[in-house]
Amino acid sequence: MNIDALYGLLGLGFWGYVLVTVVSVHITILCVTVYLHRDAAHRAVDLHPAIRHFARFWIWFTAGMLTREWVAVHRKHHAKCETKDDPHSPVIFGLRKVLLEGAELYQVHARDPETQEKYGRGTPDDWLERNLYTKHRNWGIITLIVSDLLLFGVPGIIILAIQLLAMPLFAAGVINGLGHHSGYRNFECPDAATNIVPWGMLLGGEELHNNHHAFPSSAKFSVRRWEFDIGWAWIKVFGALGLATVNRIAPVPLEQPHRKHIDLETVRAVITNRMHVLRNYTLQVTLPVWRAEFQRAGGRLSGSIKKLLVREPLLLDAQAQSKLKAVLDRHQALHTVHEFRERLRQIWAGSVISNEALVSNLKEWVAHAEASGIEALQDFAARLRGYALQPVAA
After folding, report:
1. Cα of 299 vs its chain's centroid, Å
2. Same domain, yes or no, for 263 and 231?
3. Where are the beta strands (DSSP E) in 250-301?
């Protein structure tokens, strides 16, 4: 047998095979984060039809996945996050199961007709989808196997294994598992989503999972200046080439210190930026008051209480709630700022009410906060008066 035949038609060297593997896996991840996630599932960006068709083909070719199924499962994840109906929550199933069996959990819901019907609307339903991708879902992977072996020979077996493992391991396991278990949180959204690392490059920006859950309809996952989202970088490249149009990105608070009168624009700015408002409340009110109480208590106030003070209440179990209540009962200042945070949250979390009532509720909250006698809370209330909506670009 000709030894050269063992290395396929292309006969690449070692680094050639490495480059092919890295590029092909990155393309797969890019198709998932930019096309499936930001375009098809959340409509945060509109990709050019050529990009959409390529991405739809590529995920069928390399993973045997269908747009409708992926989108339906992801939308259901957001709608039922951290409940028994969440397709892949480590809070419910445990981290080990999601990490090792994430693909199996995905398949259960992806093949469920009810899930597809309820959450998969608006996804492609053209001739290609009906007669090729859906009807012959395994043809893509079969073609991939044949192509890898012909082009790369024996090394193609390793390339193929990595290509086929990329989605189940990185997306189904790491993002759905670690992304709801370990990492840091910029925002206390009502689920356990975390940012695994601040540099979303390996997984296309999906590592910034807490940011995404705070602003699901944003095409850009990075929020802080030091965070990087490579998926967003590609969207900017596509946009410059006329191949993508960004529909939405996360709002950025606009503070105008000269504004003193609370009106409907103030309310809309506060509600639009509510994730930022809660984060600022934590940094500017809760933590400074906690530090003051910690010093006043001579260091006898447990450091773990700080985490309970800033944590989303829905994520606290009965034991944590009991521990927090005991501390709040002993420290009036902490009790006050915690109560004001929950009252602030109720302004946008309650049932639908009139604009007049919303303005009245915010005015009342600000007035009471400014009369609280707690300097950090008073300063925050004064800044809240200056909240305004960012001007819309012409």
Report:
1. 36
2. no
3. 254-255
